[in-house]
Design brief:
The complex is a heterodimer. By secondary structure, chain A is α+β, with helices and mostly antiparallel strands. Helices cover 30% and strands 23% of the residues of chain A. Chain A is built from 3 helices and 4 strands, in the order E-H-E-H-E-E-H. Chain A has a 4-stranded mixed beta sheet, covered by helices on one side. In chain A, a hairpin with a 4-residue loop joins strand 3 and strand 4. Chain A starts with 8 loop residues before the first strand and ends in a 13-residue tail after the last helix. The model of chain A has no long low-confidence stretch (mean pLDDT 84). Chain B is an alpha/beta fold. The longest helix of chain B is centred in the C-terminal third of the chain and has 82 residues. About 1% of the residues of chain B have low confidence. The chains are: A alpha+beta, B alpha/beta. At the A-B interface, helix 1, helix 2, strand 4 and helix 3 of A face strand 6 and helix 5 of B.
């Protein structure tokens, strides 16, 4: 799963305006991505207040919502992404044992 | 005064005296398949088409395509409304298996989508169907609760008239206790099965700041959409008519003082099977249609077409009236609906068709617990009377004994009661009828025999004599007998008269004889007298002569 032919991750994060929770979510996501996905991800951040139609089309209910568009299957992770284990699980990434990778 | 948003659902707006509270959320709850979604869709469709209030349908369960397909059978063109910008459907899909919860969140996405949909068509109405589905997609119930509370507050703030549907829960109205948050108006839908008959019912559990009907009202979902049928029990203050309507049977009309029944009265025709109830009822209908009245016939045992065919044999052409639109048959099996639903359906049909005469054939086909049946019939009679409709009920159940179950307590509700009775005697069956009661008019108390032939129904006087009521052949025989008796009596008296004449003649003859003999006697007497006189004179003359002679000789 982890080694050969690393796939690119296409991620879309829906946030509700520039709230503290939105900032916290983005920070959490950046940290997780830089740790686990390094350069193999594309992230698009969408403010649902600005792009309501896209929010509707993407079936966003909760905010914030992280949508993993690729690789399949499509998954959505709701919340401020503070629970890293669950985020990794949602992204289909192996959960690393606590060690040097754990930056907390 | 609370402003109300009419739902356009027939009956519901009456029950709630105007509709749902305008600008507020209402809760519509009930078990699976009880019509919540349909109720909500109807609210939106009517809003868009009748009250120029565009609506947003936020579906948490069905996809927009499925929803449109499901309600197409009711004649709702959701796609068309969407294209006209009168309706927006947003399917909110929450799939637990796709969702990972990692940290704090709120439902701002839902708010944004709803606001977007509302703003895009300037919606006034919103439906959330079924918002509780969120609880199965997301695990943090505490967040969901507070967010839903916020959502309902938001709807109110925006002045949106909303329906929130909820699935019936254990011990409470909805699974998640939404009734705690949506407290302005709660409507409960129910789909109950009793004796294998399903009845949909609706009840307004609460309606803050407004009076409302608190009963359970049956409602109907059919090709005409959804209709709530408040069977309002009429007060006994309806106007009465003293116009008289003909029964279509000359002899029967003649049995009533005014020559028929009062318009708007309720008439019961009872009799066992095969006594001609339907035929007499059809005769009523034919007469009414000929007068130009509209007639609605609820038949429970035959189809309309069959009745039309059958009564042709007695010279009634009902098919003609069906074609001209004056007559409509509503045929249904009694077991198709519950009592309440039958009544409700009738009321709806009656209000739509506006008939002058209604036939219920036979009313005894309706089954149910006795007290419920009685109450239903009472309301049926009330409903018809309050509309001034002449109602004709046929009943199978009165076969001689009037036990309470038998005649459904109908007899006291009815203004007139004609009873049909088959008389079985001398190896033949004869149809007779008599009037048990007719309120407010004199009526014949005679038993009449009636004959059904291709010339129609004809009443003949039954023979009532010391030997009892005679009908049919026995009547004919008796009548012949009577005629013979009369002839004999006539002949007897003739004979006696002749005898008297003869006797008189003989007496007169005797008198004449006597007179003749008297005359003779008189004649004889006078003859004798004259003889005597002659003799006397002769004698005296002789004596004189003798004396003279004697003296001469002396």
């Amino acid at each position: 799963m982890s080694g050969a032919a690393p796939e690119r991750y296409l991620l879309r994060l829906f946030i509700a305006g520039p709230s503290p929770r939105s900032h916290r979510t983005m920070e959490n996501l950046r940290r997780i991505c830089s740790t686990h996905l390094q350069d193999r991800f594309d992230l698009e951040v969408v403010d649902i207040y600005q792009q309501q139609a896209l929010a509707e089309a993407s079936q966003v209910v909760a905010a914030p919502t992280l949508l993993k568009l690729s690789p399949p299957p499509v998954r959505r992770i709701v919340g401020d992404l503070s629970d890293e284990t669950r985020v990794l699980h949602g992204l289909g990434l192996p959960v690393l044992p606590p060690g040097p990778a754990d930056e907390r | 005064m609370l402003t109300k948003a009419p739902t356009g659902i027939a009956g519901f707006d009456d029950v709630t005296q105007g509709g749902l509270p305008a600008g507020r959320p209402s809760l519509v709850c009930g078990g699976a398949g009880c019509g919540k979604t349909l109720f909500a869709v109807t609210f939106l469709v009517n809003g868009a088409t009748q009250f120029s209030e565009p609506g947003v349908f936020m579906s948490f369960e069905e996809r927009a395509e499925d929803l449109a397909a499901n309600v197409a059978s009711l004649g709702y063109d959701l796609d068309g409304l969407v294209a006209q910008g009168k309706l927006t459907i947003d399917h909110v899909r929450v799939e637990r298996s796709e969702i990972e919860e990692a940290g704090e969140y709120d439902l701002e996405g839902l708010f944004v989508r709803l606001a977007y949909a509302v703003d895009s068509i300037k919606a006034k109405r919103v439906v959330l169907d079924t918002v509780e589905t969120l609880f199965s997609g997301l695990s943090d119930a505490a967040i969901l609760r507070s967010e839903l509370r916020r959502l309902f507050g938001w709807l109110k703030e925006r002045g949106l008239t909303a329906i929130i549907t909820g699935e019936r829960g254990e011990g409470q109205l909805t699974r998640q206790g939404l009734e705690e948050y949506v407290s302005d108006c709660v409507v409960l839908l129910d789909n109950r099965v009793e004796d294998q008959i399903t009845t949909r019912r609706l009840r307004v559990v609460k309606y803050r700041g407004s009076a409302h009907g608190s009963n359970e009202y049956p409602f109907l979902i059919d090709d005409a959409g959804i209709s709530v049928l408040p069977v309002t029990s009429a007060d006994l203050d309806y106007a009465v008519s003293s116009a008289v309507v003909s029964t279509g049977i000359e002899g029967l009309d003649a049995m009533f003082g005014p020559g028929g029944f009062y318009q708007g009265s309720s008439i019961l025709i009872s009799g066992v099977s095969g006594t001609g109830k339907t035929t007499i009822g059809s005769s009523f209908i034919d007469a009414a249609c000929r007068r130009g009245e509209r007639c609605l016939s609820f038949v429970f045992e035959e189809s309309g077409a069959q009745i039309c065919r059958n009564v042709r044999s007695v010279g009634l052409d009902l098919a003609r009236h069906v074609e001209s639109g004056l007559l409509r048959f509503e045929a249904a099996r009694p077991s198709l609906f519950g009592l309440e639903m039958h009544l409700a359906r009738m009321q709806r049909d009656i209000d739509a068709f506006k008939p002058g005469l209604v036939l219920i054939d036979p009313v005894s086909a309706l089954r149910g617990p006795v007290n419920e049946l009685q109450a239903t019939l009472l309301r049926m009679v009330d409903m018809l009377k309050s509309r001034g409709i002449t109602a004709l009920f046929t009943s199978l159940r009165t076969d001689g004994t009037f036990d309470q179950v038998g005649d459904l307590g109908l007899s006291s509700l009815m203004d007139a009661w004609v009873k049909l009775l088959d008389v079985d005697a001398n190896g033949e069956r004869t149809r007779t009828l008599y009037v048990i009661k007719a309120r407010g008019m004199s009526h014949s108390n005679q038993v009449r025999e009636f004959l059904m032939s291709s010339a129609g129904i004809r009443l003949v006087d039954a023979y009532v004599g010391p030997a009892g009521v005679l009908t049919g052949t026995a009547r004919v025989v008796q009548e012949a007998q009577e005629e013979a008796d009369a002839l004999r009596r006539r002949q007897d008296s003739e004979r006696r008269r002749r005898e008297v004449v003869r006797r008189r003649q003989s007496i007169e003859r005797q008198i004449a004889d006597l007179r003749a003999s008297l005359d003779m006697a008189e004649e004889e007497e006078s003859l004798l007298l004259s003889h005597e006189e002659t003799r006397d004179s002769l004698l005296s003359g002789g004596r004189d002569a003798i004396a003279a002679r004697r003296s001469a000789a002396e």
